[in-house]
Write a structure and sequence with these properties.
Elements lengths: L5 H23 L3 H20 L5 H24 L3 E2 L12 H18 L3 H25 L4 E2 L4 H31 L1
Antiparallel strand pairs: 1-2
């Protein structure tokens, strides 16, 4: 069997990057969707800065940073597996939808984390958020041609939205418990 060589894969990746950059420059840049993505990159952080509890900012920021890392990995996996695509991007060289991955979703999750500190309200808040993201936000992004479902359905997203919030909250609580135990020694 004849497998592609590393050089062939690199050449193909370089050609793909060149094609993505051309598409972005001639098709995406400065379109209404591009401007919308730019606003989605900036506005959530402005809202977060206004709402954040400054006495807990480090903990909330850490939660958001861990959430962002997880979101980026999950988006990379889904994009690489051909489950979804982003026809219009804010920055052409990124295969993911960075305004959502590093702004909208982390900020929204940080706000839920800040206001719902106990597990039950936290879970309820994240379930509601998951339904809103899956059945309102995602279809809207499909409609305006920013998000394209390939081998994915909106309801598949609901467990992912909920589980990532649970995982990060669990990690945060574990870290904070370790920290408390270390300070008590």
């Amino acid at each position: 069997m004849n497998y592609p060589s590393s050089k062939e894969i690199i050449d193909f990746q370089n050609k793909l990057t060149e094609m993505r950059n051309e598409l972005w420059y001639y098709h995406d840049l400065f379109t209404p969707q591009w401007w919308f993505l730019l606003v989605l990159t900036i506005l959530p952080w402005m809202i977060w800065w206004y709402l954040v509890d400054r006495t807990r900012i480090k903990k909330i920021w850490l939660y958001g940073a861990l959430m962002t890392i997880l979101i980026l990995y999950l988006d990379d996996i889904g994009s690489s597996l051909g489950l979804w695509d982003y026809p219009i991007k804010l920055i052409g060289i990124f295969p993911r939808l960075n305004p959502i991955d590093v702004s909208v979703l982390p900020v929204f999750h940080m706000i839920i984390y800040q206001y719902f500190t106990k597990w039950k309200p936290f879970l309820i808040g994240n379930i509601i958020a998951a339904v809103i993201f899956a059945y309102a936000a995602e279809p809207f992004f499909v409609k305006i041609h920013i998000y394209q479902l390939i081998k994915w359905k909106h309801f598949y997203s609901i467990p992912g939205y909920i589980l990532k919030a649970i995982i990060i909250k669990y990690i945060m609580e574990t870290i904070l418990d370790w920290n408390k135990k270390e300070h008590l020694k």
